[in-house]
Amino acid sequence: MYSFVKGLVLSLCCTSVLMAQTSVAFRFDFGTGKVAKGYTQVLPTDTYTKQRGFGFMPESKPVSVSRKGGNALTCDYVTGDKPFFFTVDIPEGNYDVKVTLGDSEGTSSTTIKVENRRLMLEQFATKQGEIANQVFTLNIRTPKISDTEQVHLKPRELNYLHWDNQLTFEFNGAAPKICGLEITKNEEAVTVFLGGNSTVVDQAIEPYAAWGQMIPRFFEAKKVSVANYAESGETIKSFTQAKRLDKVMSLMKKGDYFFIEFAHNDQKKGSGLDANTTYKEYIKDFIHKTQAKGGIPVLVTSMHRRSFDSTGHIVNTLAGFPAAMRQVAQEENVALIDLNAMSKTLWEAMGAKESMKAFVHYPANTFPNQDKELHDDTHFSNYGAYQLAKCIVEGIKVSKLPLASYLKKDLIPFNPEKPDAISSFSLPNSPLVSPIKPDGN
After folding, report:
1. Banded model confidence at residue 368, pLDDT cuts 50, 70, 90
2. Domain check: are 207 and 133 in the same one?
3. Number of domains in the chain
4. CA dihedral 111, 439, 201, 260 (to 10 degrees)
5. What is the pLDDT at residue 369?
6. Is the pLDDT of residue 328 over 90?
């Protein structure tokens, strides 16, 4: 499954003629029926080509269904009994996406992820005969910083569904029914940049996940775009050396945010970092550069690993790094989200046994090509990542950041002392799966 992704990503470096002709918006009408005025038809057989500039990924097998009715956009749709991917060439930036979904003669249930499994729409259901529009805002990025500089990508990042001039959708769910898609450039949205490691990154493949790829679904459309620059295995020092910080600063505008979370790899021998000296110096550098751009830095203390003592309490395995970040927040008078403290409460509320479900603990043969048990007390399952994202949301509120006004209005307050029951959580798995653990621990 993953081989076709590598081939596409490596081959797609140019912007298509179609994009040049429609620099403001794309309008796609999916299905074999009549084509809505002003829309480009997408047939289920339209596999992506560089010449076309859009299409379904080669291993996607959508089918078209036609219904009666005079509305050309909604009288047909594409669907599939397995997740299917659609991709379009598009320049770097923030975009609003309006998806038209539903079935005039049935029901639907759709989950949409973009790029590296970034959650945008979660199990959105339409009633019998209902057609609905849903809008979300997202970010597209490339490694280019200037004509002479670019981000130093790791070899595995060449396989990712980001870092290219493409926007890739994963249509998933019990009954995804996609009628139309509209993509429009958004120059006004506040960009929330994320810097961190494997606990923050948009994890590319199941069963690993991180809070950074869950957080977009909690923000109002058109107001906020999340740009996740975290990468597995990074320290705050290596993040800087790879020019990821330079890339963020090249794009940051006044009023944007930079969430900064490092510790898991920084604490390790050989990182060249000391909690009370060099680590703090790097954090302050991130803060000052963000503020010089008119941005708003937000420090996030790293969550605890799943490490319990005999009394059922979490043991700190991050040495003095969370405390050092708290000290910097106080010294620099910047916002702090104490995810470290919230995660201690969260894991202890779950308990030693139940908390395994928040991490990557799975028996052998749970996933394809996984012949050994997965036992990882650092990296998260979708459920664990989602719970941590809810902690971040509460941290935004408690810190009284202006960003809080852009959170969705229907969110239920979250208390880490009372985590969501695993039985109530359901997020369709993506088809890209590997038992190989991400960098870092």
Report:
1. confident
2. no
3. 2
4. 160
5. 83
6. yes
Entry pTM: 0.93
pLDDT 10s digits, 92-134: 999 999 999 999 999 999 999 999 999 999 999 999 999 999 9
Domain range for 122: 1-185
Phi, psi dihedrals of residue 206, rounded to the nearest 5°: -70, 155
- Residue 1, pLDDT > 80, answer no
**pLDDT tens profile 48-61:** 999 999 999 998 99
28 - beta bridge partners? 40, 181
**72 and 35 housed in the same domain:** yes
| β-bridge mates for residue 182, sequence order | 27, 98
Listed residue (314, 196, 365) closest to 264, CA to CA: 196
| Whether 195 and 307 share a structural domain | yes
164 and 292, same domain (yes or no): no
- Summarised one tens digit per residue, pLDDT across range 213-234 is 999 999 999 999 999 999 999 9
Rounded CA-CA distance 248/240 in Å is 10
